[in-house]
Each structure stands twice: as structure tokens, then as C-alpha cells.
Amino acid sequence: IKHQPGELRVEEQIRAAAERELSGMTIYYGGAPFAARAIYQEAQADVRHLSPVAMLVLLIVGILAFRDPVGVALTVGAVAFSVLVVIGGMGWWGEKFTVASSTLPVILFASGSSYAVHVLGRYYLLRADHSAADAIAESLRIVGPPLAIAAATTAVGFYSFVTTDVRPMRSFGIACGSGVLLCWLTSLTLVPAVVALFPRKAHKEVRLDRLGDALVAMWHWAERHRRVLVVGALALGALTVGP
């Protein structure tokens, strides 16, 4: 049943009529239209709650790591820009906003924020001994190839949804893959451009050496206890087969 813009959907008309005629009684609704509407509304509610949480976590991580408002704004802004472009592109393309596509903001904030973090993190480490231009150039040289590989593998994983017969899932996969690539591209273009225009220097207390030393120590521990790690991983995997 087609409806004009502003007109109540058929399930909404049924619901209004039932509540009007059967007021005071407990009413249960069933059927595909009601189920689809309920799933869509629940997904929208989840996104409204999860998106601010995801952004808050990203802000906290950025503040603790960089202690620089420009760095934090770049980390969040690069992903927000990508989300807007992807969702706007879907609108221009005529794709409907479905349950699957409603999760795009949360997924892109989770999977696309790491690219700008890697670029800025390396930049701040190098900035102490290099000029802003040299630091960002060296940062891109170091983290560029790994980020390209990470973005390519993540995007291909999302693009694999094109093999499904469900159109909303195909649109979701294309949108997520494109969003990941856009986040990656933004971290290699917008982030360096802003840093070049407004040279940043890491706060004197912002040193990632301790974190790096801890990771190296963990690596050496794993190297010395390879059998323990392998056996432990196999045992953990075996325990999760049943559940």
C-alpha cells in the first residue's frame, strides 16, 4: 500500500483505529509490517544511544593520548565528515535508510577513527625533534603503508556484502566499505593539511614511550612463552566451541 508524504502508514492507521475502538484493553499487534516497524524503531533508538557513547569514548581516548584540542577535534571530525558524506551520498543515490544502514555511524566511529589516531600519534612523537612539516611527512611515510593495508582489508570485508541477495545488506556493505576508505583518505589528507596550517607540538607530559615500552615488554614475554600462549589460545578456543 503506497502512502503520500505526511500520511500515516498502514500499520499506524491500524494501530490508531485499534487504540480508539479497543481502548482499555490490552492490544497485541502481529504481522510483517508491525515487526519491521518495531525493528526499525528499536534500531534507531539503539543508534541514538550508542552514537553519543561511541563519540564520548573516542573523545576520552583522544584527550588522554594527545591532550591537544586540535588533535581531538581532528580525530572526531575526520570520522564525522566521512559519516555525513556516506549517508548524504546514499540519499543522493536514492537508497532507503534501513535498519542496517542506521548502524553506520557507530560502525564507522568504531572502525574508522584509528587512521587519524595513528597519523597524529606518530606526528606527536616525531614533533619533539622535527619541524611540523618534517614530522607529518615522516609520519605519513611510516604509517602510510600499514594504514593502506588495514583500510583495504576492512573495506573489502564490508564490500563482500554485495554477494548477498538482500538489497539493504548490499547497500550497507557498500556504504561501510566506502566510509572506511573515506576515513582512511581523510586521515592522509585533511589531518596533515590542518596540522600544516596549525602546527601542533605535543604537551610535555604527552609521551607514549611508557606505552611503547609496555608493548615491547609484552612482546618479549610472548616470545619467551610461546608454548604457553599457543596452548592457552587453543584451550580457550576449545572452551568456546560448545557455547
**Percent range of helical residues:** over 70%
Strand tally: 0
**Average pLDDT metric:** 83
The assigned structural class equals mainly alpha
Low-confidence region ranges = 1-7
Any idea what the shape is? globular
SSE string: HHHHHHHHH
Q: What is the strand content?
A: under 5%
Q: Compute the number of helices.
A: 9
How far is the N terminus from the C terminus?
44 Å
For the report, how would you describe the main beta sheet?
none
Using only C-alpha atoms, the radius of gyration works out to: 24 Å
Can you describe what's shown?
The chain has helices spanning 10-21, 32-66, 69-93, 104-112, 114-127, 132-159, 167-197, 209-224, 226-241. By secondary structure, it is mainly alpha-helical. Helix 3 (69-93) runs antiparallel to helix 5 (114-127), helix 4 crosses helix 7 (167-197) and helix 5 (114-127) packs parallel to helix 7 (167-197). The protein is globular and about 75 Å long.
